[in-house]
Amino acid sequence: MVKYSLNWIGENIFVNLEINVLKALADNTRYEIIKLLLRREFCVRALSRRLGISEPAVSQHLKVLRSAHLVKGHKKGYFTHYSVDRGKLKELSNQLAELCEESSDTLLSDSIAILQESISGSLDSSGESD
């Protein structure tokens, strides 16, 4: 975990954010993989077909997501099926909320609240099947 220091309008705000998690989610393809995996488990081949990219490309994206501890895989026969570590997403959401509370900037607070609602909404609707 990286201790991230942010100087915001003369105030020192300290919050524990895992920067590697934010970097992993910053890529559009990885974000799409997370959204798919929130709905159900997929193997590399299924993700490749859904995203329209090669299996090696999906594997590389999954490697980044695994190193950030956002996804986990388990073997089913010949294939590894991946799922989202929902606890990790909730932890990130809580850290962003903490940053929001420590900030006096309401625009930042509103933006993070919207992001948190979006993540919570995805987590709540994860029971849907495709």
UniProtKB/TrEMBL annotation:
HTH arsR-type domain mapped to chain residues: 10-104
Entry's transmembrane regions: none
GO MF terms, alphabetically ordered: DNA binding; DNA-binding transcription factor activity
Family annotation (Gene3D superfamilies): Winged helix-like DNA-binding domain superfamily/Winged helix DNA-binding domain
One Pfam family it belongs to: HTH_5
Keyword Lipid biosynthesis recorded: no
InterPro entries in the cross-refs: ArsR-like_HTH, HTH_ArsR_DNA-bd_dom, HTH_MetalResp_TranReg, WH-like_DNA-bd_sf, WH_DNA-bd_sf
Keywords annotated in UniProt: DNA-binding, Transcription, Transcription regulation
PANTHER family assigned to the protein according to its UniProt record, in alphabetical order: TRANSCRIPTIONAL REGULATOR, ARSR FAMILY, TRANSCRIPTIONAL REPRESSOR SDPR
Protein's UniProt name: Putative transcriptional regulator
Natural source organism: Mesotoga prima MesG1.Ag.4.2
